[in-house]
User: Fold this.
Amino acid sequence: MFLISGCATIPSEAPQLSGELGKRISAIEKSNLTLLHRFFDLKRDEVDKFIEKEWTPIFAKEFFSEPKIQSAWETIVTENNPTDRLKFLIIIGPKLQKKINRKRLELIKPLDKLERFIERKIRSEFRQARSINNSITSFLVSASKVEENRNRYLDMIGITDDKIGVLIDGVDETVGNLVNKSRNIKSYSEKFIEKLNDLKKIIK
Assistant:
């Protein structure tokens, strides 16, 4: 705290204002981070449903359409040998699951990266807000400026709220498009990853 000489004094409201603002900053930060993680949990769930209901059936159909696989399966079905059928599934099953898991990771990874990116931005903004709050009393030279400074610093806290909001909307739209573009799944999966990577540029 700076010492003020002459007639000017630190108003009595300053410590209380600083304390209230500090509590509000921490509460808002916690709420923002909680909402952020819940939002991305929902987006990951949507991607999982897309993989299960849209991507996997198409992938399985294409996989079993491969000549070697199709021929082997038709032979097994024709001969109706339970042992051969079980052996086939034991061999093919893990391969199918591996490719499904790889696709999930491919789509989930950019979401995870974007979530961490936004979290870092939010934490950075609130660190700045706390720093501002720690020095707020040095700006309070009269009781008449208490409300003025309160609004000034609260405005500074929200400096990137609009940009983060745009980014969140972009994620929501991109995941929504992925789920709804079932007619062209392969090409849109690539666009999905590209779009999520581009969204980070909004608040860089």
Summary: Confidence is low (pLDDT under 50) at residues 1-8. The first helix runs from residue 13 to 65.
